[in-house]
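Homework help board

Subject: predicted structure for assignment chain

Our instructor gave us this sequence and asked us to write out the predicted structure in token form, then describe one feature. I got the tokens but I'm not sure how to describe them. Can anyone check?
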Amino acid sequence: MSAAADTRGRLIVKDAAVQKTAAHIAGQLNSVSATERMTFAGIGLGSTPRARPKTDVEITGGVANITVHLALPYPAPLEKLTDDARRHIGDEVTRLTGVSVGWVDVRIDQLLVGTGERTLQ
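My token output:
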């Protein structure tokens, strides 16, 4: 027999847990990657990328606001890629953590020239 919800305690999901979840989700997207360590004017120079995209999360009133820093292929439909990434990251963070997402801010920190267009799954 389970205890009533109000007597079982509460679940607290910290900012760091949501941040790591968002970074992991962003790192799994086919059409985006983590920023490279070496760039020239925002263009990746083919150096080793970070393991996961950089993310920042702030949870206020139980709602997470997420900023994710990505490198995208160029040429590619950047608006579509960022819209798809924003929607996927927000939906998956909510599904996996139970924390509502207010917004996902996608920052294009680098364009990876010559990598070709790939499709988000």
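Reply (TA_rk): Your tokens look well-formed. For the description, you could write something like this. Residues 26 and 85 are 7 Å apart (CA to CA). That's the kind of observation they're looking for.
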